[in-house]
Write a structure and sequence with these properties.
Blueprint (H helix, E strand, L loop, with lengths): L7 E5 L6 H14 L3 E4 L4 H7 L6 E6 L8 H13 L4 E5 L2 H5 L3 H15 L4 E5 L7 H14 L3 E3 L11 H11 L4 E5 L5 H10 L3 E4 L2 H16 L1
Parallel strand pairs: 1-2, 1-8, 2-3, 3-4, 4-5, 5-6, 6-7, 7-8
Helix pairs in contact: 3-5, 5-6, 6-7, 7-8
Length: 225
């Protein structure tokens, strides 16, 4: 299993986030060797500047947090984020379309973003699982897989609840080994993190990445005493 720090997309997406907050996020990501930072698209260029010379990737959210903007809007935001330095795009599906069975709309929406990325960035598809039935989650995972997405992702962290081990396991079972799963939303401690990884999460989205790693280190030190 990879080192725990390499599971994390260190995240700051709240509307009141400042440039200073993003700079701090990048500094922490470099210090702790985290896999990526995840920011709103307006902060991608700032993250790129502050991560220069490091191995930390940059993920930009697109159509966030509702997913209800037009496909053309998502495509523009995707291309703009990539131009500014994004390596990964975390797009939100059109949740209403998914719930009412407008499958072709959801599929073409994802495909458009995947095509906008080309070989310049990978796509994570945010399902907002707390708003979907299990059948919807399975269907959405298959749509993302068929569209060429690299990941399916549980949540924005801005809805009624976040990731659950049950949903992560269902998603992993559905997509198999060719698509990865990102668990995000409400992951604030080591116990929850490890539950998500055990359920099949390949990546963890969290604003509490540093405190989770410190908790893991404290536990390791206690065991060696």
């Amino acid at each position: 299993m990879k080192e725990l720090n390499q599971y994390f997309d260190h995240t700051i997406l709240k509307s009141e986030a400042t440039e200073e907050d993003v700079i701090k996020l990048c500094k922490e990501a470099k210090e702790y060797g985290l896999y990526a930072v995840c920011v709103n698209s307006s902060y991608v260029a700032l993250a790129k500047k502050n991560l220069a010379g490091s191995q930390v990737k940059i993920a930009s959210v697109v159509g966030f947090p509702l997913g209800a903007c037009t496909t053309a809007t998502k495509v523009f935001e995707t291309k703009n984020a990539i131009e500014n330095g994004a390596d990964e795009i975390d797009m939100v599906i059109h949740i209403g379309a998914m719930k009412e069975g407008r499958i072709n709309y959801v599929l073409t929406d994802i495909i458009a973003v995947v095509e906008a990325c080309g070989d310049k960035a990978l796509v994570k598809v945010i399902l907002e699982t707390c708003l979907l039935s299990e059948d919807d989650i399975i269907e959405a995972c298959l749509l993302a897989k068929n569209a060429g997405a690299a990941f399916v992702k549980t949540s924005t962290g801005f809805s009624v609840s976040g990731a659950t081990p049950e949903h992560v396991a269902l998603m992993k079972k559905t997509v198999g080994s060719t698509v990865q799963v990102k668990a995000s939303g409400g992951i604030r401690d080591l116990k929850t993190t490890l539950e998500m990884i055990k359920a099949g999460a390949d990546r963890i989205g969290a604003s509490a990445s540093v405190s989770i790693l410190k908790e893991a280190e404290e536990l390791k030190n206690k065991r060696t005493v």
